[in-house]
TrEMBL record:
Residues 36-55 bind DNA. Residues 13-73 form the HTH tetR-type domain. The keyword DNA-binding applies. This is TetR/AcrR family transcriptional regulator. SUPFAM superfamilies: Homeodomain-like (SSF46689). Keywords: DNA-binding. It comes from Herbiconiux aconitum. It holds the Pfam family TetR_N. InterPro entries: Homeodomain-like_sf, HTH-type_TetR-like_transc_reg, HTH_TetR, TetR_C_Proteobacteria.
């Protein structure tokens, strides 16, 4: 027998995760333009109305999926408080299968959906650069140094991920890459 009444906060959170997982998988498999809300709803085991109520339209689903990736980074930033921890988590998250899938999708469709590209950039890279800037020691042009660090944290390993040439890094590989990136920035 199905439960009646409103879902609890926990049940809503679990359902939202299912919805975002389904959205990422659908966007990765079909692209943003070809993905349909009906497909996403079916994959998440919810109604289309629930998608609209919980998250919004297709663009809002994409933005929420990008924001979820960056929520992981923000959580580490809040808990750890050190630049190396934040940089390591940034490598882990941004080189993950789901983040790479979203990145591929937005690159493929940026010309057709320029607002989607703008939302992706504001919710993703720009937010990460701002977060890194808040952890950098004072001195010099902090926004430029943060953008440089962000670029190095992604760099060639991220390009290989986008091209599906390498798997996502392990935590120790991400930490090594973050350490090397910070050392490179310190020398410049």
């Amino acid at each position: 027998m199905a439960k009646r009444g409103r879902p609890t906060a926990y049940e809503r959170a679990v359902r939202r995760e299912r919805i975002l997982d389904a959205a990422v998988a659908t966007f990765a498999g079909r692209g943003f333009g070809a993905a349909s809300l009906d497909e996403i709803a079916a994959a998440a085991g919810v109604t289309k109305r629930t998608l609209y109520t919980d998250v919004g339209d297709k663009a809002a689903l994409f933005a929420a999926a990008v924001e979820r990736e960056h929520d992981h980074i923000r959580a580490v930033a809040t808990d750890a408080g050190s630049l190396i921890d934040v940089a390591t988590e940034m490598v882990m998250v941004l080189h993950s299968d789901s983040a790479v899938a979203l990145h591929r999708s937005v690159i493929a469709e940026a010309r057709r959906f320029p607002d989607l590209a703008q939302t992706f950039y504001a919710s993703g890279p720009l937010h990460s650069i701002d977060l890194l800037a808040s952890y950098l020691p004072p001195g010099g042009d902090t926004p430029t140094r943060a953008a440089a660090l962000y670029s190095v944290l992604l760099g060639e390993p991220h390009r290989r991920r986008l091209l599906d040439l390498t798997p996502a890094p392990t935590r120790s590989e991400a930490a090594a890459h973050a350490s090397a990136s910070l050392a490179l920035l310190a020398r410049s």
